[in-house]
């Protein structure tokens, strides 16, 4: 978060600690057992298309979830495959969980088989976890058509398996698969299934919206009915096929469920599971439920991104609470209100979940946007109405020509500095030239020559590269190396090109975005031109200028 923006005390954040009451002294205590936060990333999350974790990956994800402070981590299905079996073996010695309990997942015994003879149940017994979660059928249609058995035998399968595992000293949770569909088709049977599991010793019966098609009002009604009719401790497990998984989970908790299952970042089969991070944030910041140990909610963004890293998923910037865009403001009108009070366009204080408020500069910006962006940069522009107006006009004109400053904040900073304090320049360009040559044998080589003046000296440098932009970048930095040896620390780490539609019959233009690193941070710059190399030059020139400024280098007072 930009440090200069005043900290908010939004009603939502006050509610997080006081449950709508008065102050800290009334904050509900954290109690891991009164509302179970049950993570199934390592089981249901891995049912997502394209997501496959090694045993080592699973161990890392489990540690992240434990650090966040969830209560239960479902490690997988030990009777399913050798990898999950190995995970539970290695977890005994390699997973030193600080607060969470590891659980093993599996199904009830097979129909018409003795529970003691079922190898899959034996694998659960031997997984080395204190808690086991069983999937069991709650929908008569599934009993008859998928299990191909009788409703009575299904209840016996549940009863036998729960009793067997509790007798082995396990805490047993039962996932009532297809509970909500089953309840619609035959409510008496679905509720009987819940009673059977609870009476056999299941600590929690988790009502599952397996197909993910339920809407919140129905979930709330059915959970309340099930609670009243069975008296069992109930949990909730929702899928996101109707885009309601998080809402359904929260509604279920408000209706009396005291155990909630979900996955990191909402990974899961088809459209995913309830995003447990959104559920946690909703519980803590809106419903006044303390479900994480003190201070851990602020780790939410970090843990979400760390797990994306392990699963090799690109972080979705629009994810509620944790996404990079979750508190990013682009519209000028929003910024003008946020300038007065950030709460006006934010549902919580982003710092509560470890996120930051950001201002995005674009053609939709107003002066307030630029003023707040200035604050992020450490500039007080409150008295600079005219300069802000000039910058705004320039930004809008350039965006009309193809620039996109929200993707290139370093270039925007340079534009702003130009107007408000006079940009510091480090060199003057005399010329650049790039040659692309195909040699005998087919090799294509790029060669660039750059001529610049800096601190009274003329520097000429020629460099080869694996492409024209690489050659140009190398030649520019070689030319300036004598004046600025620190340039050797800069790396061009990403280069993106987009051809924009031709406008007014003038032909297409090219937008180039360059990402540069100095090992301590990264910054993005932009160039637009009809010629791709010229566009690249503009972006590179900004990249180097910005880098020199970061390094605190001495500008050249004569540079233009
Ligand atoms: C809603 C959910 O997401 S639940 C979790 C689902 N996850 C997975 O399926 C991933 C792991 N699954 C697997 O590795 C395999 O499917 C296994 C090892 C469990 C079973 O493999 P197989 O023995 O080859 O059986 P298959 O997958 O073809 O069919 C499932 C069998 O389990 C039975 N079954 C399904 N649900 C249950 C249940 N709740 N209780 C008991 N048996 C069940 C089916 O009737 C079927 O029996 P059948 O083999 O006699 O026809
Ligand atoms: C158990 C489970 O994953 C489901 O019903 O969706």
UniProtKB/TrEMBL annotation:
Keyword Transmembrane helix on entry: no
Annotated organism of origin: Parafrankia colletiae
Keywords attached to this entry: Amino-acid biosynthesis, Branched-chain amino acid biosynthesis, Isoleucine biosynthesis, Transferase
Pathway listed: Amino-acid biosynthesis; L-isoleucine biosynthesis; 2-oxobutanoate from pyruvate: step 1/3
PROSITE patterns from the UniProt entry: AIPM_HOMOCIT_SYNTH_1, PYR_CT
A GO molecular-function descriptor: 2-isopropylmalate synthase activity
CDD domains: DRE_TIM_LeuA3
One Pfam assignment: LeuA_dimer
Designated name of the protein: Citramalate synthase
EC annotation from Swiss-Prot or TrEMBL: 2.3.3.21
Reaction(s) this enzyme catalyzes, per UniProt: pyruvate + acetyl-CoA + H2O = (3R)-citramalate + CoA + H(+)
Low complexity bias (residue ranges): 12-22
